[in-house]
Amino acid sequence: MSSQNITALPGMDEAATRAASIAKNRRFIVALVAWSVAGSLMLIGMRPWVRLAFNSSDSLPGFLYVIRVSELPQRDQLIAFYPPRNRYTRDGMFFVKQVKGIGGDHIERRDAEFFVNGQHLATAKAHSLKGQPLQPGPEGVLPDGFFWVWTPHPDSFDSRYVDVGWIAADRVLGRAYRLL
Question: Does the pTM exceed 0.70?
Fold first, then answer.
């Protein structure tokens, strides 16, 4: 904020105008910190029901998501889940992806191409960005209580690979919503 936002009163010199501007900035910063602390405390208190997630990859747009814990998403909604234990992820890590397949959907693979109910969605890669071999994920009719997850990014680590595969409902943290 600049001193141009402060109306100079008669007899108010430049130093007084600057001091008024600093005081206004200080009030703004104090209010911002207070709201941040209050918001953080609220989220800590709501932790059993709500969590925050930060996206550090290019696989989804945005970088801040809120997760409503235990809410199961529908097709095309965002899902937060714990991937099965595999060589690429660490314990406690969770992913945010988009649900493209639900129970009863037909997952088909033709070579490296994946289709859900006949709609082409993704191409599986043979190797990770680090050169490690990747195996294609399962195909067939998705059982009830399972999800086929995906993002449009070509390097997304999702259901097109066996290390992620189909996500069982008991691995779902909740439905994710993009904030920023």
Answer: yes
